Amino acid sequence: MCSQPNIASTAFLIADPARANMLMALVAGRALPAGELAYAAGVTAQTASTHLAKLLDGGLVTVEAEGRHRYYRLSGAHVALVLENLAAIVPAGEVRRRPLGRDAQNLRFARCCYDHLAGQVGVAVTQALQQRGFIVAAQDKRFDVTAAGLDWFGHIGLDMNQLRATRRGIARQCLDWTERQHHLAGPLGVQFMSALCTNGWMRRVNASRVVQVTPAGWAGLKAELGIEGRLGALTQEA
């Protein structure tokens, strides 16, 4: 009897283009009905139902009934992490690509990675936190929060005493699939994203993974972390 995990069956489920599109549509962390997932995958409602049944059986998604409607979501952040890491795998060498459209540019610039900030803005913020000594890269793809970091996160509204570390720690490094660099994830990343939205620095776009930086957010990012920017271009003070 084989004692190895059955990676092949999970890989098979993700490998289908329609199912992969459904899963990526759920990376934003929101629950979506089958109709929206069928549209994202470019398939009929009947075909989508078949795909979703397989994803449910494979443990990649969960479903919640609300009246006559059924809403699907990823079964956890661990699935989002796998999808983001797979998306970061690219062939060696330069690959010619078409110029990004506006929607793709927005998604690359700032987006939510399941429940934390990603994209160019997410990476820039993470690097600024490191440069200011608020977080420090540690082993096993973790970030340690320094004493100065505890004070700073508390200053912008996080209750650090309420954070509960997972088996992977309170903060971890998540490889950004568009930038090929790490951004902040884990319980700290989740609450940090929540605080940015509560403070009015960021806003999530409905029915999208896109995150917008508000005028107040740009002012706050400049004052607190030395980050200035606009779509496609960021500058950062040392």
Morphology call: globular
> Into how many domains do the coordinates divide?
2
- Report the uncertain regions: none
Question: Would you count the extended β strands for me?
Answer: 13
User: How big a fraction of the residues is strand?
Assistant: 15-25%
Class of secondary structure makeup: alpha+beta
Describe the strand arrangement of the main beta sheet, using strand numbers.
Answer: 1-3-2
Q: How far is the N terminus from the C terminus?
A: 56 Å
Q: Compute the CA-based radius of gyration.
A: 19 Å
The helix content, as a percent range, equals 40-55%
Order of helices and strands: HHEHHEEHHEEHEEHEEHEEHEE
Mean pLDDT: 87
The biggest sheet amounts to:
3 strands, antiparallel
